[in-house]
Specification:
The protein has about 220 residues and is α/β, with parallel strands linked by helices. It has helices at about 1-15, 15-20, 25-30, 35, 55-60, 75-85, 90-95, 110, 130-145, 160-165, 170-190, and strands at about 45-50, 70-75, 100-105, 115-120, 145-155, 190-195, 205-210. The protein contains 11 helices and 7 strands. Residues about 1-20 and about 215 have low confidence and may be disordered.
Length: about 220
């Protein structure tokens, strides 16, 4: 409940940065972590747009000895919630003490640097950005992946179509451009999609594997 209230406060204060009104369910978190959990250790994970830490908590519950986790969040309020309410839980006591978990505050393009990851799990609300912003984010994430690495993210079922229908003027054009851009990348890179009905709202967990040397187009 505390996580949900924190999320709602941030949504009300800045809906264009948060992009949702409720944190992800455990079922959605599990679907997002599916490729990671099927892998062999050691593995490096980057979580982007962690919010209040609903997915972070699940990652902590399945993080294996030797695996590392970087958590990137742009909101100072959410970063403080993660530091105080998530990284202090028993699941994180050992990896935090061992220095296998880092909390990074800022845009992912600015804070990750040259570090490479086997898995990137994203809660970024891509549909609220412009095409140029989404392109820069995806290029940054692609460059942060090891060859063969997996990028996983979620989108609410039907949200792109609904946004295009309800918005007007410049916002409607932006939403349609972003939707078309995402559809192009989904067709090029997605290798798996999971439907998660037990979430508010129901969502798709999408898993991409970028072609070696390709850019988000």
């Amino acid at each position: 409940m505390g996580h949900t209230l924190g999320f709602v406060r941030q949504f009300i204060a800045n809906p264009h940065s948060v992009g949702a009104i409720a944190p992800s369910s455990r079922m959605l978190a599990r679907a997002l972590c599916e490729p990671y959990q099927a892998s062999q250790p050691p593995a490096s994970i980057l979580e982007v747009g962690a919010g209040t830490g609903a997915v972070t908590k699940y990652i902590g519950s399945v993080l294996r000895p030797g695996d590392t986790l970087d958590i990137c969040e742009i909101s100072p309020a959410f970063t403080e919630l993660l530091r105080r309410n998530v990284l202090t839980t028993p699941a994180f006591s050992s990896p935090v003490a061992a220095g296998r978990v880092r909390l990074l505050e800022g845009p992912v393009q600015d804070v990750v640097g040259d570090r490479k990851y086997h898995f990137i799990i994203s809660g970024l609300p891509l549909t609220i950005f412009t095409v140029e912003q989404v392109s820069r984010i995806l290029d940054s994430l692609r460059l942060s992946l090891h060859p063969g690495g997996v990028f996983s993210y979620f989108e609410y079922i039907g949200l792109r179509k609904l946004s295009g229908a309800l918005m007007t003027g410049r916002e409607r054009r932006r939403a349609k451009e972003v939707s078309k851009f995402l559809s192009t990348n989904i067709a090029a890179y997605q290798f798996r999609r999971r439907t998660v009905l037990v979430n508010l709202p129901p969502a798709y967990a999408r898993h991409w594997r970028f072609d070696d040397g390709a850019t988000a187009a």
